[in-house]
Amino acid sequence: MTIKASHTVWAAVIALALAFVFVRSGFDFEYVIPKRLERLATMVIGGICVAWSAITFQSLTGNRILTPAIMGYEAVYLLFQTLLMLMLGTHSLMVLGEHGNAALSILLMLGYSWTLHRWLFRDDRDNVYFLLLVGLVLTMVITTFTQFVQLKMSPGEFSILMGYSQATFGNANATQLLYATLIVATICLVGLKSLPMLDVLLLGREQAISLGIDYRRCVQRQLFLIAALVAVSTSLLGPTAFMGIFVANTAYALAGTYRHRVTLPLGCAIAIALFILAQLLVEHLFNYTTTVGILVNLVCGAYFLSLMVRKRGAA
Amino acid sequence: MITVQDLHKTYGDRSVLSAVNLCFPSGQLTSLVGPNGAGKTTLLMMLARLLKPTRGDIRLDGSQVTRIPISEYAKQVATLRQTPEFNLRLTVEELVAFGRFPYSRGTLTRHDHRVIDDALSFLSLTTLRGAYLHELSGGQRQMAFLAMTIAQQTDYLLLDEPLNNLDIKHAVQIMQALRRLCDEHGRTVILVVHDINFAANYSDYIVAMKDGAVHCDGNVSDVITERRLSELYGLKFDIAHNERGYLCNYFKPSGNLE
Ligand SMILES: Nc1ncnc2c1ncn2[C@@H]1O[C@H](COP(=O)(O)OP(=O)(O)OP(=O)(O)O)[C@@H](O)[C@H]1O
Ligand SMILES: [Mg+2]
């Protein structure tokens, strides 16, 4: 069951990827296909980031209806974009250069998470609920402030800004993708070693400590990896908000096991497949009249509901 | 041997444990008894390093426990909490396999599998090994958690109310299993138990706690006396002692409780 499910999903990913690259491309290897490959790479990296960070975050918090968005990482990104727009106007892209915005966004999100974690874990606190509470409050404060600033903008600036608050795949360029790949690959390699530890964390704080896990250090380290993944994906394709919930829960349902060795790769595959599917639909069926973000939520929601109905009681 | 010196725990300015000095004998079964809120769990959780003492010293075989890395500690001390609960879809065998984590770090060897099998059969859980935890009764689940603790193969077992949810036969089974762990395997067992009759009949050593302090401690014959238990619980006890063991009768006090 497990093996079959993950094979099916990966086969779907490959089929979708091929369709995405070649359908109606006119086999134009000069322009169309390279551009599409860039978008494909964005989706692959983004999918890995979204699924990995969401599943890890849910295991840390012992809660299946959360994503790292609750910690305010994405809110910080949106505030930064808003302030940029306010101060530099529509010229902000030119002033910061091609990579300036992405690099600054990543640094800012990492700085925010580092400060937050440092503060949350000062002295002996290792209470995850406290962490969530602080994260949620900060998210609300930052979001409110962002909206306050947005009121001072012209409609033109505001509509550009709206583009930043939804997932899109067309913005990243090759250099950015290269750096993102390097960062994500490093994180995944580091993270792979701690997968059995994540399994144990599912038993809860006390049980994990009794089984010899240095809980505080482990949680801090995982939170840092999560923050880095979110920073990369947000700077590449924008906030994905609660998509991670669908991805993670679908992965759990299909995997039929709690083991991260299975659920994490499966989640990544599901996220990538979803992104490609949504992008295909946007490009070929809806002719850009809708956005990937909206479609992703629609597709996930429908599929997840059908899973729930079919497996009621079993999941 | 676990020794405790001048142990204190306060929450804010509320003291829940004060000036506890104890020495838990090795290879023996120690029961912690006392009324609700006496501080039994607090003491046990500090031994398990799940709770930091406000002041005082806990030593394992002479060395301060805070000096021992937590990953090493898990190979010497296993803990079963009062109400282990989670909403994970796990089979009994998968749960018990977690007990091997301190050694295997996630990759089970043949030896690990053998230990898991032994732990399951030690508690007669073999027929339930493939069952999902959330489909078990409360008592069966309690047994599964105990099996995980046993699979950890530690010299010390700390158990908080392991008889919770168990019918009388299973309770007897568990206490016999714990005795065997002490007598045949040389393990040291420290458990919190509310049923004073189980404590009286299966312990080597009893620590009676009240209001965050040790009320009295000693061998069974020292602690299980009508006077001591009356002081401890504020109930009148009739204690019968014959070759089959102790019987503490407190069920129908004459007159009203204060
Ligand atoms: N986190 C906490 N904050 C404040 N007080 C606490 C906390 N945890 C426990 N206490 C208090 O410490 C005292 C001892 O609690 P403890 O759980 O050790 O009792 P116990 O002897 O195990 O009781 P029971 O038999 O009901 O399990 C209680 O009065 C309880 O209210
Ligand atoms: Mg208790």
TrEMBL record, chain A:
The chain crosses the membrane at residues 41-63, 75-96, 102-121, 128-149, 177-202, 223-248, 260-278, 285-305. It holds the Pfam family FecCD. Keywords: Cell membrane, Membrane, Transmembrane, Transmembrane helix, Transport. InterPro entries: ABC_BtuC-like (IPR037294), ABC_transptr_permease_BtuC (IPR000522). Its main location: membrane. PANTHER family: FERRIC ENTEROBACTIN TRANSPORT SYSTEM PERMEASE PROTEIN, PETROBACTIN IMPORT SYSTEM PERMEASE PROTEIN YCLO. This is Iron chelate uptake ABC transporter family permease subunit. It comes from Halomonas casei.
From TrEMBL, chain B:
It is a peripheral membrane protein. Residues 2-236 form the ABC transporter domain. Pfam families: ABC_tran (PF00005). GO terms for molecular function: ATP binding. The keyword ATP-binding applies. PANTHER family: IRON(3+)-HYDROXAMATE IMPORT ATP-BINDING PROTEIN FHUC, PETROBACTIN IMPORT ATP-BINDING PROTEIN YCLP. This is ATP-binding cassette domain-containing protein. It comes from Halomonas casei.
